[in-house]
Structures are given as C-alpha cells and as structure tokens.
Amino acid sequence: MRKRQNNIFAGVDWILVMFFIVLVFIGWINIYAATVTDTSLSVFDGTTFYGKQLKWIGLSAVLITITMAIDAKFYERFAGFFYVISMLSLAGLFIFGNTVNGATSWYNFGGFSLQPTEFAKVATALALANFLSEPNKDLSNFSTQIRAFLILLVPFVLIILQPDAGSALIYFTLFFVMYREGLPGWYLGLGFILIILFLATLYFGFVTALIIIFSILTLLVLYLLNLKKFHLNREWPKIIVLFICVGTFMYSVDYIFNNIFDQRHRDRFSIVLGKEVDPRGIGYNTNQSMITIGSGGLTGKGFLEGDRTQGNFVPEQQTDYIFSTIGEEWGFVGTSAVIIIFTAFILRIIRVAERQKLKFSRIFGYSVATIFFFHFMINIGMVIGLVPTIGIPLPFFSYGGSSLWGFTILLFVFIRLDADRTYEW
Amino acid sequence: MEKKYIAYFSILLVSLIFISRLFYIQVLASKYKPSPLNNSAVAVKYDYPERGFIYDRNGVLVVANQPSYDVMIVPRDVQALDTVEFCNLLKIDKETFLKRYKKAWTYSPRIPSVFVAQLSKSDYAFLQEKMYKYKGFYIQKRTLRQYPIKSAANVLGYIGEVSPYQLKKNSYYQQGELIGINGVEKQYEEALRGVKGVKFIQRDRFNKEIGPFKDGIYDTLATVGKDVNITLDIELQKYAEDLMVNKRGGIVAIEPSTGEILTLVSSPTYDPNLLVGRERSKNYNILHDKKYENPLYDRSLLAQYPPGSPFKILTGLIGLQEGVITPETRVTCYRGFRYGRRGFMKCHCSYGTVHALNSGIHQSCNAYFASAYKKTIEKYPTAAEGMKKWSDHVKSFGLGDFLHNDLSTGTRGQVPDEKLYNRMYPDFAWGATTNISNAIGQGEITTSPIQLANMTAAIANRGFYYTPHIIKKIDNKPIQIDRFVVPKKTTIDPKHFEPVIEGMLNVFEKGTARASRVEGIEICGKTGTAENFSIINGEKVQFQDHSIFIAFAPKDNPKIAIAIFVENGYWGSRWAAPIASLIIEKYLKGTVSRPYLEKRMFEGSIQDEYEKQRLMLEQKIEKETE
C-alpha cells in the first residue's frame, strides 16, 4: 500500500538546496564583476549580461517549483519520452537551428534563444537510469553494454555534428556511471591505457613514442618471464598481437591527429602538452586567463577592482572563463573556496545517491554527479591550463540561461527523486 | 562499497590538484604576475613638467630650455603615402627617406624611433597641419637644455638618461627618463626637475585605451621644476675661462664673507651645448677621448697639486700661533737652508739676506719658512706630537678633507700627519728634517684649487671660513642651509693674521707679484711655483713646474679670494699672478685698466709645453713596453 505525503518539502535535501543557492549567488556576483561597465545602471537592467542572468535566475525558481511539483514517479515513467523528444530537438537543430560562433546549437524564439544540448543532458541521464534500473539488466552482458552505449552514442553523435565537441564529451563520461552499475573495470582500464598511448604519441611523436612504449612492453614481458608467470614458447602469438595492436593504434592516432584534425584542434593539444608556447596566438585565451588569475595573488584585488577583468583581457570571461574573474578579484582564497564548495557539492550528490533505495534514483544521482564533476573538472582545468581548450560552461557560474536552467533541472529532478526516497512504491 | 570510494577519491584528487595548481599560479609563480608597470591592462602615462631654469648670482639666465620637435616613426603603422610630398615637407630626398625607414624598421617595427630630428619651429608649424595624412608618423615635442652663455660647463653639469644603477636606487625614475648627471643639474635635481604627473589609463585587450583607470582617482598633477640661482658670477666665470684658453689648470674664486663661489674654472673646458639632446653621447665620447686635455675632468675640484709657496702663509701662521716665531724673528738665508747633518734646501735669495716675516713672505724665502716649520715641530718632545699639532692647524683651514660642499665631485687632497710618517718610516726614525719640504708646500701635501681658495678665504677673514657653495637661491628664496651659513673657525688666533697679511700685501707692492699690481686696489697675494713629478713605470719623472697664485682683495673687508693653478706654467708670477690680478680687477672695478696684460694672457699659450710633455710621456711608455 502506498501512502503519499502531500508536503513535498519534508524529504527535500536542504543541504543540496543551500549549495545551489550559494553557487548561483557567487556565480552571479562574478558575472556582474566581469561585465559591469557602468555601476549606475540597475542590476535588473535587461540590456546587461548580469541583468539578464538575474532574470534567468528568477525564472529558474519557476522551473524549480514545476520540477518539485511533479510526481517523482513521473520522471521514471516518462524517461524514454523525454529522451526521444530531446534527441528530436537535437536533430531539429540541423533544420531550424541558429549558428553562433560556427556551432549550430541554438533555437531562436524571437529575442530569446535556447540550447537544447543543455536539456538533453537531463534526458540522457534519465534514460540511462531508466534503462539500467530495469530488472535483470546486467552490464556484464554484452548486449546490455551495447544498448546502454547506444543511449549515449546518439546524443554524442548529434552534438559532435553541431559541432560542439566539449558538450559531446560529457556524454561519454557517463561510462563512469555504468562502471558503478557493473560495467567490467577493464573497459575503463582499456580507456585509460588508450588515453596514455594517445597522449604519448602526441607528446613524443609517433616514432619516439613507439620506441618508448615498445621498450616498456619488452621490459614488462622480460619481467614476467623472469617471474615465470608465463612461457614464451606457448604465448608468443599473444605478445606479437599486443605489439601489433599498440603499434596500429599509435599509428592511427598519429594519422588522425595530423591528417583529420583541424589545425585549431592540434593547437589546443599542443598548448596543454607544452609543445608550443604561443601566448599571442591560439594560446591567447588560456595565457590571458592564467595571467589574470595569477595577478590576483593570495587575497585578490577586491570586488570590481580587477583591472584585467575590467579591461576585458580574457575573452568570453562571463561564460567559459568566469573562473578567472574569481581568481583575479578574490585571489587564491576565493578560488580555493570555490573549489572546496564545488567539491563538497559533488560529494554530497554522491552521498545522497548512495542512500537511494531505488536503483533508478541512484543511477540518476550518479549521472548528475558525473555531469557536474566533468563540467567542473574540464572547465576549471582549461582555465588554469591543465586541460585543452574545450568550451563547456562551469555549472551555475557561467553566464547563459540554457545552461543555468539545464543544470537547475538536473539537480532539482534529483532532489525531487530523493525527497521520495523513504516511500516504498 | 568499494566503487563509492573510488568516486570520492577521484573527486578529492582533482580538487587537490586544482588547489595546488592555483596555489602555484597565484602565490608561487611570478611569471603569471604582471608587475604594476608592466601590467598590460593599465597604461601609465607621465606628464613631464618643464625643468627649472638656472640663473647666476646677478639673475643672468645661464641654463634655459628649448623646445625641439622630432618626427617620429612607428614603421608597423606606416601606410602608403605620397613620398614625394612628404620628402619635400621634411626637406630630405627619397633615398634618405628609404634608408631611414629601413633603419627604423630594423631597430623595431613597433617602437617609435626618431625619423627626422630637431625640426625648426617654422618647419614644425607647417608640417603639423599635414601630419594627419601620414599614418605611422608623428611629431614629438621634447625639451632640451640650452645654454645661452657658453660657459661653466663643469659647474652646471648636464642631464641624460638614468642609469640602471639609479633606477634601482631611486624608484621615482623610469627607464629612459632624464636625470641630472653632473654638477648643479645633479646636486639640485629634485628642485629643478619638479614632480612628474602620472595618469593611469585603462586599456582593453587590443591595447586600446578605453578611458581613465578608476575615473582617474590615482592620477596626479605635475609640479613645475623650480628655478635656481647659483652663486657664480657668470660674466666673471666666462672672463676667467677666456683667460685660461690654451692653458690647463683651475681657478676658484670665493666671496670670503659668505663662502659663495664666484668662479669655478677648469681648463680646458667645453661648450655645454655639446652635451645636449641627440648629439650628447657622440660629443661626450669625443671629449672623453682627449686623454691629455681631459676636458671632462674638473681640475678646479679634482686635481691635486702641491700648493707650493702659498702654503708658506700657513707655515708662518702656525709658527706665530705656536709662539716659535714672532713677526720680528729674523732668519738669514744662505741661498738656502741647511738642516740636519747633510740636508740643504735651496732658495733663490742672495747669499746672506736677512728676512723678517714680512719680507720672508713677499720674497718667498724658503729658508725662513723651513726654519719656522722646524721650530714648530721641534717645539714638542717628539716629532709625532709636533706633527700632529701642525697637521691639526693645517686641517682647520679645510685642507685634507672634502669640504662638504654642494658640488657634485671633489677630492680630499692630502695633509700629512704623524700617522702617515709612521707608516712611511716604520722605524719611527723621522723628524722635522725628514719632511721639511712641507714647510714650503711641497712634500707630502697636496690640495685642490677649491681647497686653496677656501684657505685664502679663511686668511682673508682673519681666521674663519664659510663652506664654499654654489647654490644661492631656490625658487627665488635664499637658501638657509646650516653648513653654509655657520662660520668654521681655524685654530689660529685672529691677531696673528695681520702681520702675515701685511706680507701678502707687499707681494704686490714690492714682492714677487709686483708686475701684476693693480692701481687703486690693495691686493694681498702669494705666488707659488711647485715642482711636480709623475711616476711612469716606476720611474720618477719631473715635469715643468706649476704656476700657482692665491690672492684676496681688498685687504680690508675682502670681497674676493682666489686660487689659481696653471699646470706647467713655469713659475707663479708668469701666468697665475697676472690672471688673478685681472680677475680681481674685473670683479671689483668692472673694467680692466691693463689691456696689454689682458691681451698677453688671452693669447698666451702653454700648448708647446704640453706637447713636449705628451711626447715625453709617450716615449717613456714606448720604451718601457719595448
């Protein structure tokens, strides 16, 4: 027998709500600092970035109310439906979409644009959770793996065609959720090794990297032989195959990198790998962003005192590079505080996910944590020069209505699911 | 659950990496911290005030400013232009245009360099109207120093770009700014330069200036440099310099009642206009390379000469003060002075001449002062005590030490004391006879012209002096600097001066300088002829004697005290005494009554002697190196 409680606030995880409020508040303060030119204007002025962002924050309250008002069960039931609608909206971009900065990612409704990519994250997470929570779905089963993989592949392909490689990448990170739900660990191990090979090839060049990797492999084989773990006369074909696979993979990386990638992609990798230092050219954004952050020092220059921020030295500072404003005006104290708050927020989501009794809620929770974590990691990593330039927003901080709403819905659907955790259906 | 902890661990790891990285960028690494002056976000612009003028004691303008207009080029910004018209405007031919353009581009495409220097005012006015047509060119106004009277280069000094050392020492200056390098320009730099104004300008990432930084709250206004009056009488200075043409040496004249320096001549000198603006370093090198004439070396302040006979005045005064002689003490000169067992100091007197103090001075008798010196030292139980007493007396006249004046350079000179001789003779076997040459201003004692002039001023004042100084007024307010207005007393009682001064008066009336006597002025002086040596490759070489003269006038209530060294000028009355008398007459009377003497001095030259000396030096050096 199911007993419904009318007061939805009873089960709400107020800690997550507090995190949401704090992050949105800090985010808006810094958008204000990054874009204000005339302090005499009202903060509600609709022609300014901060005025618009404030409007969207207000509207997200409406979205939260709607999200919370809907029955938790509804999200599970209609997960497939949301997914289909989302995929259609992504596909529709190729017909009705609006191109901004070379990417066809926007629908334009009169003076108002929406980026369906941001909402598709919610739908994909719901769909994945729904699929994996079905009874007798076992991720060690190959066909289950394939079908789960397809759920991620569809949005990935649609988004990479826009092209928006950064957002597309986020869908791949949901593999970690599958790992949590039983995907064998060697998939991740393989992925990790491939990434190592990939970076080694780029960093050292094909021939050098090949020599290094083969030397390591040979040493490994000799070591294992010495331990008498296996016998050369029996297992030599495996070793040959291994060498061939590694060699082929590295050669393909080299080939793809040099013949299929555009120069701008190559540049982005080269900069992070430290191969080319070119502060005036392609590395300009990252370099400016790092100087801007560095100039903040330990305690920062103070609110609205960031001269590099005021001088618009960092392009797109209110969106992807918003973190540099924090760095300049609030210093190391501010940046580390934001990182700690963000980390605590993500850890809290995982903790809340772990306490779910329903598999659906738990998987969705993990998806939410994964999505936030990779946005956080890639965005800040890029701003401080640890990750190649990949244009994805910092959740709740970056300017933009679609991303704010997408993340708000993502979080509050989870809070809604969590609010129902105590009830058996 | 194991996997849960993998998630926690990865998230904490990433967050830790980020915080470490941020700590590195924001706190540790300096490469991400633009210095405030190198901060590309804020441009700092300086507004340079006009440098103060320099006037002489009578208000005659000595140093002024002149505007100068340079056509500057930023090669990168140059766009297609009508070169024929442009070349006509600039009055250059097309070949020059291309050559300079290439040169500027090689220097830097982005940094402005001078394309055509120092346009005339009329060219500037004409060109200014048309400059808008020529992108990448602009006219820059500079202010250069200008010297209406080509005189006193050594006193005034010059300005130039700040050195890296000064940049480090003084945070006021930026690279490429101008600073007084020498002379009055250096000493009164702060008053003359004023305070530059600073404007902070916010720039965007295209380096475009987008308005005042923080609405200009940090901006400051420039303060104009203050005008300065120096104590020189520029007319007298110029006159003295002209008298020293073709002679090397120094002249210092001081007003005894104030310590104000009236002339400070170092010869050979140069036109101060040479060290101005773009030609400065070229001309500087030319002057610097004249290694025998060495015009950049201020002989009046830096050269150390043996003072020679004028020093006998001091020997006499000390003898009187110590009570070992009286004005009536008589000494017989046997064409010299015999001392110790074998020592003999020659003198030019006739055999058996008997001198009292007065004639000892005006005939410059060596024997008289050697005897006084010997008595002074030997008055005390040990030579060391006597030497110390003597040395203290001498030092009270400002000799043997920097005068703590306001000139940019100087020397200590040397006044020997007992410590020096103890060092020279480690067995302490020395006495008055060992260093008897000190009595007549030879030996171990050396002085610079300004020290000797100051000594003369102290004698003129009968026992005290004011530290010589060059500054008279700043911003039209007379200076009140304690060390310049408080008199310094010598250790000699005033009463001992009168007999000595009588002797000095007789130098002109009937003594060694009677040929330079000036009708109507009571000049007190003392000639000097100093032997001088140089050590070349360990060998002592004697050169032609220096011509030396000190004087003050009038005898009562003196207005001017002067000391002159003419290098290798044979003897005191040959060059130094006539020049001194001319300067004194010019200063006190305004005109010169002896045009024949004046002409002889103007035209006289010792260049032959210097040439001889140069050849001698070069031969010596050559011989040694063979």
From TrEMBL, chain B:
Designated name of the protein: Penicillin-binding protein 2
GO cellular component terms attached to this protein's record: plasma membrane
Membrane topology term: Single-pass membrane protein
Domain Penicillin-binding protein dimerisation: 48-210
Membrane among keywords: yes
GO biological process terms held by the UniProt record: cell wall organization; peptidoglycan biosynthetic process; proteolysis; regulation of cell shape
Ranges annotated as spanning the membrane: 6-24
Keywords from the named record: Carboxypeptidase, Cell inner membrane, Cell membrane, Cell shape, Cell wall biogenesis/degradation, Hydrolase, Membrane, Peptidoglycan synthesis, Protease, Transmembrane, Transmembrane helix
SUPFAM superfamilies from the UniProt entry: beta-lactamase/transpeptidase-like, Penicillin binding protein dimerisation domain
Organism of derivation: Aureibaculum marinum
Name of encoding gene: mrdA
Location of the protein in the cell: Cell membrane; Membrane
PANTHER family in the record: PEPTIDOGLYCAN D,D-TRANSPEPTIDASE (PTHR30627), PEPTIDOGLYCAN D,D-TRANSPEPTIDASE MRDA (PTHR30627:SF2)
UniProt superkingdom: Bacteria
GO terms for MF: penicillin binding; peptidoglycan L,D-transpeptidase activity; serine-type D-Ala-D-Ala carboxypeptidase activity
Occurrences of domain Penicillin-binding protein transpeptidase (ranges): 249-584
Pfam families per UniProt: PBP_dimer, Transpeptidase
